[in-house]
Amino acid sequence: MNDRRTRRRRRSGNALIDVLNGMLTLLVIGLVVVGGGFFYVASQYYGAGPVQEERIFRVESGNTLTTTANRLEEQGFISNALIFSQFGGRVEKNTVVKAGDFSIPAQASMSDILRELTEGNPIRYAVTIPEGWTAWQVLRRLADDDRLTGEITTLPPEGSILPGSYDYTPGDTRQSVLDKMQLAMTQALATVWEGRVADLPLKSPAELLILASIVEKETGVASERPEVAAVFVNRLRTGMRLQSDPTIIYGITLGQSTLDRGIRRSEIEQKTAYNTYQIDGLPPTPIANPGIEALRAVANPDTHKYLYFVAKGATPSEGHVFAETYAEHQTNVARYRAIAAEAAAQAEAEAEQARQALEAEQAEEAQDSAQ
């Protein structure tokens, strides 16, 4: 009887050991499987990616990590969207992707890509508006940028846009970029108006903006702006008409085309709202979008007694020569006309030489062909 009980206890003990050994074996196998799985996932996540050359990837505004992972896999940047979003979402500190275009290097790992999309800087895109452009020209530039979306159907007020460079993210609307430009002008004009000289003969920021647009179109030499502004300020103070050629041109084109010819006498004599040879004071609106320096020049013009100016030479970069009296101005005008005539004659002579050289070359070629 005792032997039978002893054998029974031994069998029970062996069975328990077998169960424990089996459980331990399963645990080891499980750990191996889990460890192997983790190693595989980690190697996929941190290993070199499939992209063989640098490429651009775009994150659309509002994309989540999961959406981004799926698009990365579809475009061949990564091999497994689930690993990217689930494993990456757990091991990286930041998983909020930024909108924009990103440059992804060749063989970039999932880890590299996620860090670039969350911590890197998108490629900088910007639209640049030169000083003196009209609203119509600005809208054309915005329309030509195919990274922007939407349409602008209404021409913004002339002078409401501050020239400069404006960053944007691909997919932004054209209207949103235009809004930035207009807000920048509103803020700049308010600041400049607050800092104007006390005796300026302008009643409002709107009048300062109009005069600044004229100054902007009259000279392309930055250092001359305060001097040119002072001429017009002096004229306003004395009641003289501004007599600015760019205002005549704007009255003809309304800023929606360029006048690729000289101003005709009939256009100088025609009374329009913008012809400052025919109207007193300022035109009703700006004639372009002036830059910040033109605004500042009008708000703080030079102190001098000049009432006239004319181009110094045949090219705009040479600037202008100034005069206090009409007699002195006439002398300067005569000098400018002589310079312009000489430049025109030189240009015509060079053109004639080019024509003769081309004719000689073609005649020689024709003779060779005949032979």
TrEMBL record:
Q: Give start-end of the signal peptide.
A: none
Q: GO CC terms on record?
A: plasma membrane
Query: Which keywords does UniProt give here?
Result: Cell inner membrane, Cell membrane, Cell wall biogenesis/degradation, Lyase, Membrane, Transmembrane, Transmembrane helix
Q: How does it sit in the membrane?
A: Single-pass membrane protein
- Site positions per UniProt: Important for catalytic activity: E218
Q: Which Gene3D superfamilies match?
A: Classic Zinc Finger, Endolytic murein transglycosylase
- Spell out the residue ranges making up region: Disordered: 349-371
Which Gene Ontology BP terms does the record give?
A: cell wall organization; peptidoglycan biosynthetic process
This entry's Gene Ontology molecular function terms read: lytic endotransglycosylase activity
Principal location class: membrane
**TM ranges:** 20-42
Write down the chemical reaction(s) this protein catalyses. Answer: a peptidoglycan chain = a peptidoglycan chain with N-acetyl-1,6-anhydromuramyl-[peptide] at the reducing end + a peptidoglycan chain with N-acetylglucosamine at the non-reducing end
The protein's location, in the record's own words, is: Cell inner membrane
InterPro entries per the UniProt record, alphabetical: MLTG-like
This entry's Enzyme Commission designation comes to 4.2.2.29
Bias (Low complexity) ranges: 349-360
Mark out the compositionally biased spans (Acidic residues). Answer: 361-371
On the tree of life, the source organism's domain of life is Bacteria
Hey, which family's this protein in? Belongs to the transglycosylase MltG family.
What does the UniProt record say this protein does? Functions as a peptidoglycan terminase that cleaves nascent peptidoglycan strands endolytically to terminate their elongation.
According to UniProt, the name of this protein is Endolytic murein transglycosylase
Write down the species: Devosia equisanguinis
